[in-house]
Amino acid sequence: MNRPLICIPMGDPAGIGPEIVLKAVTDPEIMKTARCLVAGDRKIMELAKTYPGSPQPEIHVVRSPEEGLYTPGVLDLLDLDNIDMTEFTIGEVSGMCGKAAYEYIVECIRLANAGKAAAVATPPINKESLKKGGVDFIGHTEIFGALTNTPDPLTMFEVRGMRVFFLTRHVSLRQACDMITKERIKDYVKRCTEALRRLGVTEGTMAVAGLNPHSGEHGLFGNEEVEEVYPAVAELQAEGYDVAGPVSADSVFHLALQGRYNSVLSLYHDQGHIATKTLDFERTIAVTNGMPILRTSVDHGTAMDIAGKGLASAVSMIEAIRLAVKYAPNFTDTRQIG
Description:
Structural class: alpha/beta
CATH architecture of the largest domain: 3-Layer(aba) Sandwich
Shape: elongated
Strand order of the largest sheet: 3-4-2-1-5-12-11-6-7-10-8-9
Helix content: 25-40%
Radius of gyration: 21 Å
Strand content: 15-25%
Number of strands: 12
Number of helices: 13
CATH topology of the largest domain: Isopropylmalate Dehydrogenase
Distance between the termini: 15 Å
């Protein structure tokens, strides 16, 4: 089997990132399907090996992906050596750690942009640490967008085969309602359809979720569906897009999970987040679409309160790598991956 090379930044050194990365890249099933290359700091990865229950691989420092061994019992590491252990405290928000976490991400993006990695799978970072470190980005999506020249990356969640896109995300619910317009819906359905195509999903119907109870019951419980959603779906269908809706939000996610729809366009942040995370919190993985490179990510935080205690679950990190492996071939057809 051809194992794609997945580049993995270590995450915030003071959080659970190093621990879950260590557990995930040494997982036997991951070792069979992927070549994992970690960008981080050797001192922190050696420290992570001392946490209760941690695996004990040899840390093999490389200067390029070509030098990696990618064999059981070995963790291949690009050592950026950017943590001063005399100033480091596990579980503490730190500008040094925020800046270091950013540098690991930059290195992975550099390799993916150069065609040296098939995908990037990211553990969590800490927004407060980024700010303290002078990093002028609020999170992963903004970093990836800037460093891949992608003005507006699309976020998709996938869990147990159910895919969910988001029409609006980090705005108030009041603002989200105002942003539900016919033109925005049409734009997003078109972009989401293209994103699915790049992932290799070319069959099936996309569902647009309803906003109001029972999708408004034709105006009885609100006019958003009548004035914006129905007209958008009708025009998209006339243009040849395989889209349905609005489909009542109390059933659309269940129907997608059953295979009725290949994806759902959620109209606001919590609508889609609640559906996916209630189904399986740890296996809800974010895929950043619309970029020239593939990125998957866990969707949980740095959990500073349990960092270093051996308590962090690596399930999400393992799932992020598995999803990267699943979709990587669709992003590597036109590039030579080292």
